[in-house]
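Troubleshooting: if your tokenizer reports a length mismatch, compare your output against this known-good record of 156 residues.
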Amino acid sequence: MKPLEMISPTDTTIKIIRSFDAPGRLVWRAYTEPDLVKRWLTGPAGHTMPECNIDLRVGGAYRYVWEWPEGCMSASGIYQEIEHDHRIVCTEAFDFAPDSETLVEQTFEELEGRTTVTMLLHYDSKGTHDAVLQTPMDKGLEASYSNLDALLPEMA
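Known-good structure output:
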């Protein structure tokens, strides 16, 4: 499987692209059903997601909590737009930076049984964008996406 692609199309936006060998409806379910999200969006080995709440409707909220031996982290936001099986737009704020809200756009495009997820992260400033690029976010996301690669055949 090809790893995620991460680029910066602007000085306040990060674009992440990753494909999965599964139909769009399964990838959508994996992204939107709490019991499934908890199984794959865990990041590196040793991390867990003990809390995952999703109210998938415009104006609905979500909250994720991750734990690992050295600590924990949470993220939450509000759904702005939802196009079932195709697109989600929401806000995102992490507990360690509650005043820094990100706008997240995710699209799900299926072609011949393979689904590409494209995520655009729109940050409030170049400083926030640059700080995020200094984190191991890409490694954590790729670890999660590898978990999703393993989960999708079970869902079929």
